[in-house]
Amino acid sequence: MVKKRNTREISVRNIKIGNNRPIVIQSMAATKTTDTKRTIAQINALDKAGAGIVRLAIDSKKDCEALAIIRDKTKVPLSADLQENYRLVKDIAPYIDKVRYNPGHLHHHEKTKSIKSKVGFIAEIAEKNNLAIRVGVNCGSVDPILRDRFSDDVEAMVESANQHCQILEEIGFTNYLVSLKDSDFDKVIRANKLFHSIWPNVPLHLGVTEAGMPPEGIIKTRIAFEQLIPQGIGDTIRVSLTLPFEEKKDEIKAGQEILNDINSGRFRSVPTLLNNKTNIISCPSCSRVENEVFVDLAKDVKKLVKNIEKELTIAVMGCRVNGPGETDDADIGLWCGPSGVNLKMKKKLIGHFSYDEILSKVETIIKNY
Ligand code: SF4
User: Fold this and answer.
1) Measured between alpha carbons, how far is 311 from 254 in angstroms, rounded to an integer?
2) Rounded Cα distance, 192 and 200, in Å
3) Which of 94, 132, 211, 311 is 20 to 30 Å apart from 58, CA to CA?
4) Of 341, 225, 243, nearest to 290 (Cα)?
5) Quick check: bond before 244 cis, omega within 30?
6) Is residue 10 within 8 Å of 176, Cβ to Cβ?
7) Distance 281 CA to ligand 1 centre (A)
8) How buried is residue 30: exposed, middle or buried, by Cβ count under 10 Å (0-12/13-18/19+)?
9) Whose CA is closest to atom 5 on ligand 1?
10) What gap in Å lies between CA 213 and CA 210, rounded to an integer?
11) Average per-residue pLDDT in the chain?
12) DSSP letters for 67-115
């Protein structure tokens, strides 16, 4: 039995979220935003597959220009993903319906300005343009001050979300929702339960970030959703999977299947299916991916460890934006650049290797591990 969701209702253009409305499934374009032809094709394919909202990354003025063209040729509500350059929201507001910012990334630009004034800027633009906001907290890029203050990542994530909810509420902006993501489904479950106990009326977007490739990525996500959605937690969802561009719509299909199963009382998550001792975390890729061979690299790493009986976490990330931080906790971390891959063990950088060399380097490390 799925509990009623008592969150307040928010609007993303014509879509109502929260207040026990049907859960909305989202995805994100993995194409370069400036490659308008491919991005329009990707967004429309996701729309056709059943996506309620599609997100795309906006990092530059060129992305903003591309967005105007993309908006013209797509119908589904669009969400823009901002990183450090939060002021871009002003340029893109007419072409989007929702903006996502990461509290951890608001620390990097304009260091003399307070976080409150930066959030105030985003909220003012959102208010004027009828946009919704997602406060998107990620464990790997959590607010650096809170990371130092808390020994538990989950508490740091929840406190970050808590502070941003307080700022938005003080400003009087209520058309927002929150996400608390990690690649570890246990942390996702704990963080969302804890946040929901503090802010029961704020809608939540659920997801296990960098869940990896199917089927493992789907299983990890399913485990989290099965623990949260029946408790009345979760108003929108995303199943983040490392997939080639043409298969991105499979994220929507996976989300639909999980929701159908939960709604019909079929609980299928079988953690033992994740029986390979080696856990591979890989990002779903987005416009920021530095080289499209990233997806092949993630697949090759998976093949490499197929029969390895070592308890290891290997992270494969597509870019320099989240790659360095999101690989810090992995035993072996790879984050991609345009022509090569940075190889780490925990926080220590081992070296930078070409795409041809990297697999043999990883293999050697694993053998000696
Ligand atoms: S790690 Fe980089 S390429 Fe991968 S999803 Fe995150 S921002 Fe996009």
Assistant:
1) 27
2) 10
3) 211
4) 341
5) no
6) yes
7) 12
8) buried
9) 285
10) 9
11) 94
12) HHHHHHT--S-EEEEE-S-GGGHHHHGGG-SEEEE-GGGGGTSSTTS-H
> How much distance in Å is there from the Cα of 318 to the middle of ligand 1?
5
In a domain, 1, yes or no: no
The answer to whether residues 178 and 126 touch, using CB atoms and an 8 Å cutoff, is no
* pLDDT tens-place string over residues 263-281: 998 876 666 556 568 899 9
pLDDT at site 114: 95
What CA–CA distance (Å, rounded) separates 321 from 81? 12
Residue ranges making up the domain that contains 300:
276-368
Q: What is the pTM of this model?
A: 0.94
Q: Are residues 227 and 309 in the same domain?
A: no
**Ligand 1 atom with the shortest distance to the CA of 290:** 3
Q: Is residue 334 part of a domain?
A: yes
Ligand 1 nearest-atom number relative to CA 317: 1
Express each pLDDT in 135-193 by its tens digit.
999 988 899 899 999 999 999 999 999 999 999 999 999 999 999 999 999 999 999 99
Looking up residue 298, the CATH number of its domain turns out to be 3.30.413.10
pLDDT at 156: 97
- Choose one of 214, 238, 271: the last residue of a domain: 271
Contact yes or no for 92/55 (Cβ under 8 A): no
Q: Is residue 348 part of a domain?
A: yes
Tell me which residue of 149, 215, 212, 135 sits closest to 177, measured CA to CA: 135
Task: Say yes or no: 242 and 303 in one domain.
Answer: no
Atom number of ligand 1 nearest to Cα 210: 5
